[in-house]
Amino acid sequence: MSLAQRISRAPEAIAGITILICLMLVALSAPLLFPGDPLAISGTPLLRPFVDATHWLGTDRLGRDVLAGVVHGARTSLLVGLVSAAAAIVLGSVVGTLAGFAGGLLDELLMRVTDAFQTVPGFLMALAFVSTIGPSLMVVVTAIALASWTAPARLVRAEVLSIRERDYVASARAIGMHPLKIAFREILPNALPPVLGLSAIIVAGAILTEAALSFLGLGDPNRVTWGGMIAEGRAVLRSAPFLSIIPGVALVLTVLGVYLAGEGLVEATSRRSRA
Amino acid sequence: MRPLLQVSGLTKAFKRGGRGVPAVQDVSFDIGPAETLALVGPSGSGKSTLARLVTRLIEPDGGSILFEGEDILRLKPKAMRAMRARLQIVFQDPGSAFNPRATVSRAIADSLKIHTGFSQGERRTRVRDLLERVRLNPDLAERSIHDLSGGQRQRVAIARAMASSPTLIVLDEAVSALDVSVRAEILHLLKRLQRETRVAYLFITHDLGVVRAIADRVAVLDDGRIVEHGSAQEIIATPQSPTAQALVAAVPRLRLQAQ
């Protein structure tokens, strides 16, 4: 049974992937749906949702279109979430593989560095990083990656430790393969599946961290972000709660989609390894 | 004739709970070119440890291994990797000896990539060639190792070992996991390859029936030491040590012949 077929049998995967595909389509077509700057004033301030056909989800305190903000915000959220999670997984995999495969002093060294990063709360580290260097998309991505690479590093290391004792690794050494090639070509690909299971949680966490940073005013100021929109709406939470609720719902949907898709994918791949 | 492999005083202990448990103690033997030495012994006698010591997959605590006149224990990592072209190993379980993601051709071509300057096209031809030599259909090349039977996988393992034109192959219980008819075929294949290429075998097994089929000489290992040494006929007909006697007694048809 192919991977696609197995996924199609997991309803949560279908739900999650559908949500994600819709979000990605929306994010990609944002410049077509809402050309121009989503931060520009486009109408009367504080218009309620569903009353004006040109501002379908209303406007905020300055008269900026909420729907345009949500749609453009999807770009930021998905971009930051995916890129920083990918960076965290790549960094964590490299560190974990080297530590697990080399053992000895290098293992000790890398794991103590991992410990050091792990003892600092991830969000505080990202916060400190961004507030020192200054908010831009690159910095936010780096900060989130630095805050979340430790879990994949530990997981990969544990997998590598068990895989490196297998016969096929001995076979690779026996034919004279270079140790680095053994580590990254023979061992790492077989150590990855559990990490990919973790990736959904990392992506979801990264999206939430980005939103939280933006909420605190540490997002990229030149981009619309959901966290920023929620923060913006906070001032008028009693009179116009929709300004915070709408981007909040978008955030929940995205994280839910990522999580469901990840769960389904893990389910589907583990079904294969059992077969 | 100068021996191809000369092992002397090889010793290895594993640490268990703070104490060293000896696995191999002061083992010496040699193998000539195109010769088959069988190393037999009951399970736990240190056979597999010895296989991994000789191929330097684990480092001994003491002793020396002279292979083609060179002390391989003194070789630097890079020189050792180059030396591995001529010193190969085939493992017992063909199910775990391959990367689960590998195809047949990748498993074999990896060795060619390391030890030859062949282009991709040349490697492909050579892989098909090697598959034919181990009597496998060359069209299996693009199949996943997972799709093959145990016997077919062991043939691929032998093809992989043969790829770098070795002078010695260590066969660590290489036919023990196979059923009887497949075992006979693989033994036949190994003998044919030895005639064709003059490769020497260090054949590690617990089964004297296999020894009779393939070995020139036999060394009997018990508790990490060599307790008996002689030609295959001698040891099967007149085993001296209790270990050898027990191994002979374990193979009914050999016992009948000995009487």
UniProtKB/TrEMBL annotation, chain A:
Q: Where in the cell is it found?
A: Cell membrane
Q: Which residues form the ABC transmembrane type-1 domain?
A: 74-262
On the tree of life, the source organism's domain of life is Bacteria
Q: Name one Pfam family in it.
A: BPD_transp_1
Q: Which residues cross the membrane?
A: 12-34, 78-102, 123-147, 195-219, 240-262
Q: Which GO cellular component terms are attached?
A: plasma membrane
Regarding the membrane, this protein is recorded as: Multi-pass membrane protein
Alphabetized UniProt keyword annotations: Cell membrane, Membrane, Peptide transport, Protein transport, Transmembrane, Transmembrane helix, Transport
Query: What biological-process terms (Gene Ontology) are attached?
Result: peptide transport; protein transport; transmembrane transport
**Which SUPFAM superfamilies does the record cross-reference, listed alphabetically?**
MetI-like
Similarity comment text for this entry: Belongs to the binding-protein-dependent transport system permease family.
| Matches recorded under PANTHER family | D,D-DIPEPTIDE TRANSPORT SYSTEM PERMEASE PROTEIN DDPC-RELATED (PTHR43386:SF1), OLIGOPEPTIDE TRANSPORT SYSTEM PERMEASE PROTEIN APPC (PTHR43386)
Q: What is this protein called?
A: ABC transporter permease
From what organism does this protein derive?
Tianweitania sediminis
TrEMBL record, chain B:
The source organism is Tianweitania sediminis
Q: Which GO terms describe its molecular function?
A: ATP binding; ATP hydrolysis activity
**Belongs to which family?**
Belongs to the ABC transporter superfamily.
InterPro entries from the UniProt entry:
AAA+_ATPase, ABC_transp_ATP-bind, ABC_transporter-like_ATP-bd, ABC_transporter-like_CS, P-loop_NTPase
Q: Which UniProt keywords apply?
A: ATP-binding, Nucleotide-binding, Transport
Span of domain ABC transporter: 5-248
Top-level taxon of origin: Bacteria
Biological process (GO), any one: transmembrane transport
Q: What is this protein called?
A: ABC transporter ATP-binding protein
